[in-house]
Known about the structure:
The protein has helices at residues 17-20, 47-56, 68-78, 97-108, 122-137, 143-154, 166-171, 177-185, 209-227, 240-253, 266-272; strands spanning 5-10, 25-28, 31-34, 37-40, 62-64, 84-89, 112-116, 157-162, 189-194, 200-206, 229-236, 258-263, 277-283. It is of the alpha/beta class. Strand 9 and strand 10 form a beta hairpin. Helix 5 runs antiparallel to helix 6 and helix 9 packs across helix 10. It starts with a strand and ends with a strand. 42% of the residues are buried.
Amino acid sequence: MKKKIAFVTDSTAYLPQELRAHPDVYVVPIVVISEDKEYEDGIDLSSDQLYEMIRNNKEVPKTSQPSVGKFQKLYEDLKQDYDQAIAIHVSSKLSGTYASSMSGKDQADFNVEVIDSLSISYAITALINKGLELVNLSEDVNVKVIADQLRDEITKSKNFILVGHLEQLYKGGRMSGVQFLLGNVLQIKPILSINAEGELGMLERIRSEKKAISKIIELLKQTNQENGLKKIEIMHGNVEEKASQLEQVIKKSVPNVDIVIGEISSSLAVHAGEGTLAVFCQTIE
């Protein structure tokens, strides 16, 4: 009999309806803290509610990784129905979620391959989709083999991020005071990117959003020429119209590539802010 495999992730991942409804996909929510109250991302806090908090509350909300106990409980429950699991999480350089998952699986004594995606959002989604595909294709499922294949896939992912509000990135500890000051004074619209080590950094300093969009298109065209593009995803922070406009521009410059539009999760919006546009893509090579 074919071994059953569960897939586990956290709520920084973008999960379309088909993944949310998938019987073998489980999500552990990131905790959002606002005015001493804790909310579980995607369970008792929607993105609309979060943006209301950001606009109206005095303090900027913060995030906290899921506890080790939360992962331990999930893995103990999964042991009843699954032989093994693959967990794919937000970059360990951006959150302690990966470490909590590792500790949780050890305490539950369950066979889990825990993968550091070295990224966020749709980059995680792409790995989950690939993992499910590999499981379906395999006659004799081996989680280590599949996990190693997914770790190879990580190198084929790129991202370009236009942050909606630098203030939130600064207050969340993701940007230095000097970078924040320069960005505001010079009205810079920086293009950020999560690098191959999973660290968030400055890719380009641009003086306007229009020029920043043009630069992202240039980077996508360059990536397509060098490695070929399989898919492009536009994630947005409550600016769907802007995301749709960007989709049309990308289609003209990089034709014949599937494009997906989705919304960043509340746990990411805490740091990136309303108005954020992030482009993810997976290369062929």
